[in-house]
Amino acid sequence: MPNHHVKYALILCFLLGACAPAQQTIIPATSTTYPTVEATPTMISTPTPESQWLNSLVSSPCLSISSEPAQDNQIPWLLLVSRAAVYAIDPNTGARTDELIPSPENIDPFPYDFALSPDGKWIAYVLSSENDDLVVEPSTNLLTKSSQGRIIWRPKNLFQLHGWLSNESVVLRSYHNPDKFASTLIRNPFKEEEHEFFLEELPDYLYYQPGGLQGTLLFAHSNLMPDPTLKRVAYPAINADRYYQAALWDVENKEVLTSLRILWDWVYNNDPLWSLDGNDFLIMGLDEKVNSREWFQVTRDGTVKQLTHFGETLKDAYIARPSRSPDGQYLAFKLLYNVKEDGTFGDGKYFILDLKSPSLNGFCIDSGGKSNPDKPFAWSPDNHYLTITNGDIAYRDAVVILVDLEKNKAFQVGKDVHAIGWMVKP
User: Fold this and answer.
1) C-alpha distances in angstroms, 308 versus 109, 245, 298, 320, 326?
2) Interatomic CA distance for residues 204 and 28, integer angstroms
3) What is the pLDDT of residues 343-362, one digit of tens each?
4) Cα distance between residue 402 and residue 408, in whole Å
5) How far apart (Å, rounded) are the C-alpha atoms in residues 106 and 115?
6) What percent of the chain shows pLDDT beyond 70?
7) How far is CA 225 from the centre of its chain?
């Protein structure tokens, strides 16, 4: 069995408590007393015309996708893509390099879980051997076959790489104890600084996994998420009425600034999406008036603004695979709707919304009924381009769609691969 399969088996064993005779139990922390999380935030509603425009977008025609890249593109970066091996694609032409990293079965130790920094200058990955290491190095090393500037660090606990919090810091999930949730470890590999955040230390934290396995992740990719300044933390909480909430914690003043209701049947697609400056985060919350899942913006001072009102016309809408551009301007997600008799969704579209426009201007791209990888979106360093991996490489129906966000144009630039992210050229 390859080492990465052994590692994930160990993590699953760790979470389930199957490696110990006793059944695991998540116990709320009782050593510190905090004020109860408030259920009612300071709320700002979006205007009705905004809501009507967004709802009309659902039924509007989507962008057509050109089968070839635009000949006039002058994009200065490369796309890093994978199937089993790892390659680079020139987004201007669609030309693909030879293997930059061979398939895992052809190399030992082997790298996996690749994540590129928002500026495309650095790549982080896990190097799997008898013990897993976290590696950070210039992304150009993949093309130049160099090891210059490579940083290797071995965490003391079992871990998983989530991605980058900023251009200087990576996010890890660290597994200390099967009786507790994985912590969120923020590490600056360049300064060798780290900050670790534990869910159990926060007031009224959600101390169990509703309808699932105890000890697994509560958000889609973490149990809590600090902002890039490390002064605020968004985390799942539960109030006295047993309602699930997303709460905002002030690290310095040790107080909850606000909270909002969330639902649980869709939490696996939900993450606090912080802007790089830490001014606000986006999250899927509950519109209690119509009992629908909607997008909310939460500022670092605790002001909450509802951005969408899909539930006014789409009672069964389901938001999936969300992602936010590093500069905070754009929000991308997949909207599934029109539930069929067999419980599946009849329609699905990708939405890209401009959060800085007066009325949340945006457009859609039809998914054609295809599924997605866990992270289908990748933003260019200048936030002008977005790639969408539409389809599944396991079924050999995946295509990589390049979206020009300024010109509202879309092109196919890859096939049978998954776009990992953007990297600088040597």
Assistant:
1) 46, 18, 14, 15, 21
2) 8
3) 677 678 899 999 988 778 88
4) 10
5) 21
6) 83
7) 11
Q: Is 42's pLDDT higher than 70?
A: no
> In 3D, which of 233, 109, 126, 131 has the Cα closest to residue 172?
126
Nearest to 214 by CA among 22, 7, 39: 22
The rounded mean pLDDT for the chain is 85
In the chain, the largest separation of any two C-alpha atoms, in whole Å, equals: 63
CA 413 and chain centroid, separation: 23
Answer yes or no: are the C-beta atoms of 216 and 15 closer than 8 Å.
Answer: yes
Peptide bond into 376 cis (omega under 30): no
Q: What is the Rg, in whole angstroms, of the alpha carbon atoms belonging to the chain? A: 21
Task: Please report, for residues 52, 81, 162, the alpha-carbon distance to residue 8 in angstroms, rounded to integers and kept in the order given.
Answer: 45, 22, 14
CB 237 within 8 A of CB 223: no
Domains of the chain and any CATH numbers:
3-19+42-424 (2.130.10.10)
Cβ atoms of 299 and 281 within 8 Å: the answer is no
Which residues have C-beta within 8 Å of that of residue 9, sequence separation ≥ 6? 1
Q: Tell me the pLDDT tens digit for each residue of 104-153.
A: 887 888 899 999 999 999 999 999 987 899 999 999 999 999 999 999 99
Cα dihedral value 213, 176, 220, 422, nearest 10: -150
Q: Which residue's entry shows tokens 């105890």?
A: 214
- CA atoms of 204 and 39, how far apart (whole Å): 11
pTM of the model: 0.87
- Which of 426 and 342 is assigned the larger pLDDT? 426
Q: Residue 2: what are its φ and ψ, rounded to 5°?
A: -60, 155
